[in-house]
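About this split. The held-out portion is used to measure sequence recovery: a designer receives only the structure tokens and must propose an amino acid at every position. Recovery is the fraction of positions where the proposal matches the reference. Here is one held-out target exactly as it appears in the evaluation file.
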């Protein structure tokens, strides 16, 4: 960070200081070989980028396997409990186990194609979608099994951190839009976020990427209307 050609600035916001508010400009910066990770010294820029993308995808896989671990922990915990059999929760666990394993199979098939896009934004979106699905399963398991689920070493906070790892601010903006839409058409019409013109454009336009192209503006409007 002390090499020539690196300009560091930070937004002057009095109430918070985070990396998301930092700005770094690189201008013909030469990095000493001693400052480069050993495993990347002989890699091309594209190979290094692929490593970063693969790392983000690994988060997706790790979260799913952590949920699978929670499912197996609960199954072992309730196998001799008649109360859960009467509630058919043992059948629920079996179906959920199959569902998550199928999800893992689908991910493995999509991995190569997804990584070949080299699209960090797309991969982040995919990661957040999967983590959100895992959070739903996590919450449902804790609702049904309470202390038995809590005895497994997987915390809600950990799942949230995986969702926003590497400061994926853009993904947070998409989550804001997603929550806004989930509240229904009535909410969209009476609250800021989408104008009537924008809604019509989405309905009648062949451009399915309207929200992605305008997500900053749309999410800003939603945020402002909720402050």
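Reference sequence for scoring:
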């Amino acid at each position: 960070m002390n090499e020539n050609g690196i300009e560091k600035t930070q937004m002057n916001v009095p109430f918070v200081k985070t990396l998301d508010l930092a700005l770094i400009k690189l201008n013909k910066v030469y990095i000493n070989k001693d400052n480069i990770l050993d495993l990347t010294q002989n890699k091309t820029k594209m190979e290094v980028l692929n490593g970063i993308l693969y790392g983000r995808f690994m988060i997706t896989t790790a979260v799913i396997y952590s949920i699978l671990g929670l499912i197996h922990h609960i199954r072992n915990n309730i196998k001799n409990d008649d109360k859960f059999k009467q509630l058919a929760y043992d059948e629920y666990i079996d179906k959920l186990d199959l569902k998550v394993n199928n999800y893992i199979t689908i991910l493995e098939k999509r991995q190569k194609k997804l990584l070949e896009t080299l699209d960090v934004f797309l991969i982040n979106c995919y990661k957040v979608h999967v983590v959100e699905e895992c959070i739903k399963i996590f919450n449902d398991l804790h609702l049904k099994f309470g202390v038995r689920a809590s005895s497994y070493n997987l915390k809600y906070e950990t799942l949230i951190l995986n969702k926003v790892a590497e400061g994926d601010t853009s993904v947070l903006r998409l989550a804001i839009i997603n929550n806004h839409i989930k509240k229904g058409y009535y909410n969209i019409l009476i609250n800021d976020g989408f104008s009537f013109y924008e809604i019509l454009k989405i309905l009648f336009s062949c451009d399915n990427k309207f929200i992605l192209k305008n997500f900053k503006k749309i999410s800003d409007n939603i945020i402002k209307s909720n402050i």
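Annotator remark: The two ends are 36 Å apart (CA to CA).
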